[in-house]
Amino acid sequence: xxxxxxxxxxxxxxxTRWMTLSTLLGLVVAVSFTVSIxxxxxxxxxxxxxxxxxxxxxxxxxxxxxxxxxxxxGTKTDINSLKSVDDFxxxxxxIEIGFPxxxxxxxxxxxxxxxxxxxxxxxxTSRVRTMGLGSLTGLQDKTEIALGKMYSDSHDGDTxxxxxxxxxxxxxxxxxxxxxxxxxxxxxxxxxxxxxVGTVKAKDDTDAYWYQGQESxxxxxxxxxxVFNDYILKESKVPLNQASWYYAFDLREVKTSQLTPLxxxxxxxxxxxxxxxxxxxMEMSFADVLDEFKVQSLQxxxxxxxLAAPMIAMVFYFIAMNARQxxxxxxxxxxxxxxxxxxxxxISMMYLIEGVxxxxxxxxxxxxVGWFMAKSIGSANGFLTFVDRQSxxxxxxxxxxxxxxxxxxxxxxxxxxxxxxxxxxxxxxxKQKLARSDQKPFWQRWYLxxxxxxxxxxxxxxxxxxxLLTFQTGMTTDQLQVNPFLFFVPALSIFAFGxxxxxxxxxxxxxxxWIAKKVLPVPLYLTITQLSRSATSYYPLMILLILxxxxxxYNASAARTIDTNSTERTLYKYGADVxxxxxxxxxxxxxxxxxxxxxxxxxxxxxxxxQKPSKxxxxxxxxxxxxxxxxxxxxxxxxxxxxxxxxxGTSIGNGNILGIDNVDFSKVAWFRNDLFPVHxxxxxxxxxxxxxxxxIPTNVAKKYQIKPGDVVNISLQxxxxxxxxxxxLPYWPxxxxxxxxxxxxxxxxxxDQVPLIPYKVWLKMEPKALVAPxxxxxxxxxxxxxxxxxxxxxxxxxxxxxxxxxxxxxxSLGFLVSVIISLIGYLLFWFxxxxxxxxxxxxxxxxGLSRKQLTGMLLLEQIFTAGLSIVLGVLIGKLSSILxxxxxxxxxxxxxxxxxxxIVFENKDTTQLYIVVGxxxxxxxxxxxxxxxxxxxxxxxxxxxxx
Length: 947
Prior knowledge:
By secondary structure, the protein is α+β, with helices and mostly antiparallel strands. Helix content is 54%, strand content 17%. Strands 1, 2, 3, 4, 5, 6, 7, 8, 9 and 10 form a ten-stranded mixed sheet that branches. Helix 16 (539-574) packs parallel to helix 26. The model is unreliable at 475-481, 595-612 and 943-947 (pLDDT under 50).
């Protein structure tokens, strides 16, 4: 079973090379798609880690590791154990952690005590001073000498040289050159002498070296580490009070596969520390940071794999369909081999070897394609939109290789199992099977399509209940921006709908034949007869097309819906491209009655009890400067303040008052026109018609039965102002009516009624115009800015989020893979279908059917199968989008779901699908024409069998 079998195998693969190549292509796609996800997750984790480390490093670095030994009271120090743990921490810990460290510091100290000067004439003895004595490694490198000199590594008798922090010298009234007696108790009856030889200052106060804070070191004498270990601990046998070791590790290059081992290393480190020196503990570590990274990585991979699962399953189905077609074509050969003595094991082994051989090639090629896919996912800026941005550091890792091997294994099993079934069949059973070719497939016999429809229906019910709960409670879901099962359940429903239609397909054909069999032309009658008699053979292609196109439509719509709604929410929240708040100078209004009470400038209240706060009079910065800034298309003033609202003498609560300039506002603000009953500019025109006009929200108008023409009173700065309602609408940029009602008015009218209130400036920017030059230009005009909000920066920030990029990248690649798989599957199916029906075509031609009629019959066959599947795939995809995509809105707080959620079908995506479908159908037709043109009746009608 050695060389001859391999020779036969390679000859068979060569004879069916197109099928072999298509199977290899499917394997490469499956492997590359599968390995791209852990590769992208690993790369994006590094970006998340870098960002998280930056955010978490406001205090201590996120990679901080603090180990501490605290001696129990009355115990002697085991010098050997102390040296053992010290060497272990200094040498072994960095090796076990496996990451570079930016800081290492070891701090040892004996118990603090009350010190007294040797020469009382030089030092104030009336002051009580309690100081500690210790060593701090690296002190020479991290500090600079302020006064005196650095301590030496030797001691003079019982006198040791020490330095203190420069600030500590002033706080404790110490001087360079002072000598103090440092009594050591614990039964030693020992008095050390400490001489201050210098003071030091930190080179960088923010350095992680000062992890414990300089404040805690103000009452400490620092001596040489060598003197502390050799003289204080060993020679003098002074008991150690505490020791601490601190590392700041750089975790920016951490990989997904390293998270769990690194966490295990920290757990093991606790045990090893205790074994080296009892009571040594890990006081602080980055285990929590690792757990957070692990959760983020798991969430990202779960999300991406759930999104990719339908596409990967589709690729496996394509591989299985290919293998089944190849086996159907070779089934007679297998039966002959069985009749000539070949065993089931030998035949199965031959196909297994073929699968392993192709799988190894796919494992070699796939990771390279997967690397490119992972890069593409990282550069996704939207659906089918890839931008040139700083690439994610993508690399091959062990997890990706394991996933790729699992994908190959699944694909081999899917292709080898039919071969094992066929290998058990003899030539007699094969002929019997041919005679019963109209037998229903297993999924129809076991009603699998009905079961899947029920599961999809249950999934829809659960999503619906979850959405109702969210709407009722206002709760948000998890931290994931997208629920991954909103892509798995729809894929299942598309597959179930497709199977259910295929159950009805033969019945539809029989009904058409029964109705119109007497009037149908010969090609159409033959087509329907062929399809109704052998409908089962067309099921694999029809399922593939329905699934690929349905998923393509759903994924395209889902991506566009997520992108559009997320972008519109941000645009609505900000209202314009850039919002600036200038600094307004103001002073308190001085009343004559208040002068006795000390009223003054600067907005400060007077000194009398019960005095009312003075009003602040503001000076308005020049607004015209904003209009003429370089890169600004238009600018408008927008006042937003609070006011107490009343209707017919009845208070209806507080509201947001927006004062605007209607003409300028129309040039700057972002509107979504379908949010309003009529175009929003009509409402702005109404504002311009009456100076005291106001526009109110729909919910307030309905609740209090307010109509246009009614009077509304709004109290601004304790002064009532009367407005007339001219319009009612549901939404307005930046306003959330379910939280606080809004009232849109004319800004100039407000300023006529009340003193100036600071407003914001909204800017409409030219494409690619930057904000930084505007700040400099405004500064030249003596305009200082308090706040700046740039919606474009926020949108870029959102686009760079790993989860968002991953969702769009996976959906985009899935869409492209769907298109490629459907095209290749379609062409291969018809190639082998036509080549297997040569005798049938020859007989039809010999019976008098013209070449034109035969071509028409086959074209109709394609239209009835592929065309119908394409239409169904698109319709089922859109139906699934309409049913399931509304559930995406439960991932945001209900009150903040403004503008209202909408499902987006982009014409461009559908057009791309139609172009691919058109190319597919034209290629199939060309293949058909070529095949019929080469057909020769005398070659087709012959003794033998179809191959």
